[in-house]
Inverse folding.
């Protein structure tokens, strides 16, 4: 481990030095821009002070717009939606910190196989683990919305059947349904209250959540408003179709439970076996961490296990899609 510790410490020190230099450069550029702005304001103040103030304001807004664009691109890279912070159990900086630690650990595990090139895996691993966490949160929320959709449609059908207007039925779902469906319908009702047409608000909700069932709902209401017909019958048929889709997906997951259990066991078995060998015979297992050949074997084992897990998950997802 000592031969690897020196280059790793050198890389860490170089990263800290680079971070400090970049911070100093940013501070210097900020001060230079501030001095330039003051000189422009002092030179143009006697002639057109309002124009100078407006020019400085335009520069400032352009800079803020560029920073916001870079922030949106970075958020889309890790699948983070800043408008829906409530669906994430941890703040984004904590997730990035843990993802950085996991990426650093992965690079350290593969350092014996890849050598100094393993440091390039740190940003890649950070982005991968962050995307995985935020994607898992989005998938969990989408699954809840999918399972709660038939009950929400049933509430709307019962409300419309007794003579309640459609907008009030949406507010009833927002009050009575469980989260996150209640939050989505509350936002839908607020959009309709400020004057947005119902079909456009429904399309926005479908695009925001990327659910086919919400698109079915928006299409059904749009066609019903254009062609006429019984609204309750249309929504009842749609609720029945979505309920069958929910049952079909649940059946698919039940049939794939054996494959998912096998994938979990095959993934956990090498880890448990390695820990048991290390406890029973530390000298024998420590060769993976102290010997250069052991470093390569350990790196190949990590890569092969990750690739096998990816293949199994891909096969299971493809069978359930």
């Amino acid at each position: 481990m000592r031969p690897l510790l020196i280059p790793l410490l050198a890389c860490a020190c170089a990263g800290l030095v680079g971070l400090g230099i970049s911070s100093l450069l940013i501070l210097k550029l900020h001060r230079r821009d501030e001095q330039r702005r003051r000189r422009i304001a002092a030179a143009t103040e006697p002639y057109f002070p309002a124009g100078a103030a407006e020019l400085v304001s335009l520069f400032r807004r352009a800079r803020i717009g560029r920073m916001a664009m870079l922030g949106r691109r970075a958020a889309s890279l890790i699948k983070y939606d800043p408008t829906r912070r409530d669906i994430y159990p941890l703040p984004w900086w904590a997730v990035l910190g843990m993802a950085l630690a996991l990426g650093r650990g992965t690079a350290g595990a593969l350092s014996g196989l890849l050598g100094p090139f393993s440091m390039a895996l740190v940003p890649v691993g950070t982005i991968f683990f962050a995307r995985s966490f935020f994607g898992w949160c989005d998938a969990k929320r989408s699954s809840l919305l999918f399972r709660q959709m038939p009950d929400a449609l049933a509430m709307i059908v019962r409300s419309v059947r007794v003579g309640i207007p459609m907008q009030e039925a949406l507010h009833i779902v927002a009050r009575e349904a469980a989260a996150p469906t209640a939050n989505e319908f509350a936002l839908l009702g607020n959009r309709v209250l400020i004057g947005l047409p119902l079909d456009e608000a429904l399309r926005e909700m479908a695009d925001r959540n990327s659910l086919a069932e919400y698109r079915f709902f928006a299409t059904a209401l749009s066609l019903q408003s254009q062609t006429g017909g019984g609204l309750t019958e249309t929504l009842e048929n749609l609720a029945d179709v979505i309920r069958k889709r929910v049952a079909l997906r649940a059946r698919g997951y039940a049939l794939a439970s054996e494959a998912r259990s096998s994938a979990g066991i095959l993934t956990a078995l090498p880890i448990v076996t390695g820990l048991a060998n290390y406890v029973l015979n530390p000298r024998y297992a420590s060769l993976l961490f102290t010997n250069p050949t052991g470093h390569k074997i350990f790196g190949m084992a990590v890569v092969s296990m990750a690739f096998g897990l990816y293949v199994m998950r891909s096969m299971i997802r493809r069978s359930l899609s």
Summary: The mean pLDDT is 76. The two ends are 45 Å apart (CA to CA).
